[in-house]
Design brief:
The protein is α+β, with helices and mostly antiparallel strands. The protein contains three helices and eight strands, in the order αβββββαβββα.
Length: about 180
Amino acid sequence: MRRMFWISALLALAAAVVLTGCSRREPAAEPEEDGAVRDHSDQDAPKTFGSSIVVFFECEFSAVELAEDTTLEQAVYRLEARLENGAVKASYQRLIPGGDETKVPFRESHAFMRKISQIVASHDLAQYNGHHVHVSGLPAMSGASLSVRNADRESIDASDNQDNFLPIAAMEELESLFAGGIKE
């Protein structure tokens, strides 16, 4: 009986030694240099988006450095809406650098998602699908990001933390739509 115990203990010890010797340790990643550009864009990403209703929408964009005439405040906007259990759950967030932050959740009807679908289509936001650029060392959000899914499971995903690729008219319409949702 004692002999079995010692054999089992030795086998367990040998297995532990072998397993710890097999694990590879990755060298610590060196921090990226400020200004390093990583472009993970997918040129083959679909540039069309079907006509079915949007079921998920998330968009963040900066209007802080807009030089053109616009109805947008110099702020960073985060707009979200999702169709869940037959209802639209949405939120409107506006952050003015060095100032106020507003985040308001609200509920809407399906018509809200149809309006988002119309804005996506009228400004051909699908053309940005697959665009993903990241520049290290930049302050928080100075570009734009967009994630949209429709009922047919088609999607648009794009992001750029340096350049805002969204048309001003699209940003104005989206901000107006969401701001209207929180006023009702």
